[in-house]
Amino acid sequence: MQKQVTIIGSGIVGAVTAYYLSSDPTLNVTIYDEGIGQATKNSAGIISPWLSKRRNQRWYNLAKSGAALYPEIVADTQMGYSVYQQAGTIVTRENPDDLQALYDLAVARKQQAPQIGQIEKLTAEQVQDRIPLLTNPQPGVFVSGGARVDGDKFAHNLLKYCEKRNLVRHKGKVALGDQGQLLTPHGQQNYDTLILAVGAWLKPLLLPMKIVADVRPQKGQLIELQLPESWGDDVPVLMPEGERDFIPFTRSKLVVGATHENDMGYDLQVSDLVEADLFASGRKLDANLTKDQITQVKVGTRAYTRDFAPFFGPLPDNPHILVASGLGSSGLTTGPMIGKLLAEYVQTGRHDWDDYALSVDHYLSPAE
Ligand SMILES: Cc1cc2nc3c(=O)[nH]c(=O)nc-3n(C[C@H](O)[C@H](O)[C@H](O)COP(=O)(O)OP(=O)(O)OC[C@H]3O[C@@H](n4cnc5c(N)ncnc54)[C@H](O)[C@@H]3O)c2cc1C
């Protein structure tokens, strides 16, 4: 008899979990997604965790493992350069001491994470050679392992891949009953395992079960531009000091972003002021950008916990319901590893995740 695994949410966590379950013929996998405000669809797409100054070792373990999974998944599912490309990342620093410190950090981190690849200290001119769009380059550190991913296309392609195997997809909002009953637009559905990969929406979803999740929403906006010039597939992502990130995709698409707007709840309105601010930041790097090149402003909702760390795993009182949330601003990077670990748990019933996250009970409490 096949087991029913139902996943709520088809962002990076839901899609990657489905991918790792897709080769298991003993499972029926179903995904529900409301399709609103998804962070994955609206993300900037930088995969480059190694130069972060974050000191949370568990987060770093997840992030570097997640970054390392992309080349495998992309090769297996045959996604092209417009979806994912390891073109490298450049992080700029004006001050020579800061630049050296960043370079030293990269070299030290490479010992434990060879995926960081080749590390180079670049002058401003060398940075401009790598990213010809720039009119105001700064010196920086280049790491060849850095990548950019189009989160929307990546998740979409993964789900299409899974649909050819054991996945059925439904659009629509689901709710939970007080005992974890799954209430869908098609009525109540049974499951053997339920995976709540709902990002910023975990708190409202769990409330009927009288569980309060430590998750708050954060609004993020970015702009996408279509430029007249084209460039190679291998132009690196720029993480400039003091400005928004600058991500040249293939087919002349440039992304500039993103904002981190707290206290906006689940608001998805595009803000003209924010759009102007993002454009101004892009123009400081490439003075030739014009407003009419903006093709869209994307808005997504990130999920944050009070310690800024993701959490995932079975509910303490119900091992058939798994949760994953709190991926914050680096969820495209940590998400693949979280999806892989959740899939392993579904298949083996075992988990030993101390190296990756605190247990979920740190982030869940009973409702009053
Ligand atoms: C503007 C922006 C830029 C970013 N840039 C980067 C970056 O450069 N690098 C990086 O690593 N990370 C980045 N991130 C962070 C990253 O996108 C997120 O952390 C990650 O995508 C979260 O994935 P998730 O699967 O947990 O949630 P999501 O992608 O948000 O998916 C959750 C899904 O669940 C659905 N859902 C929720 N409740 C229900 C319900 N009751 N019924 C049905 N469906 C439901 C939602 O509609 C949504 O589609 C960025 C995020 C934003 C917003």
TrEMBL record:
Similarity comment: Belongs to the DadA oxidoreductase family.
Which keywords fit this entry according to its UniProt record?
Answer: Flavoprotein, Oxidoreductase
Listed SUPFAM superfamilies: FAD-linked reductases, C-terminal domain (SSF54373), FAD/NAD(P)-binding domain (SSF51905)
Q: Which domain of life is it from?
A: Bacteria
Give all residue intervals belonging to the FAD dependent oxidoreductase domain: 5-344
The keyword Flavoprotein is assigned to this record: yes
Cofactor(s) needed: FAD
Q: Its GO CC terms?
A: cytoplasm
The UniProt entry's coiled-coil ranges are none
Gene Ontology MF annotations: oxidoreductase activity
Q: Would the keyword Repressor turn up in this protein's UniProt record?
A: no
Q: What is the lineage of its organism?
A: Bacteria, Bacillati, Bacillota, Bacilli, Lactobacillales
Q: Which InterPro entries match?
A: FAD-dep_OxRdtase (IPR006076), FAD/NAD-bd_sf (IPR036188)
Could you identify this protein by its name?
Answer: DadA family oxidoreductase
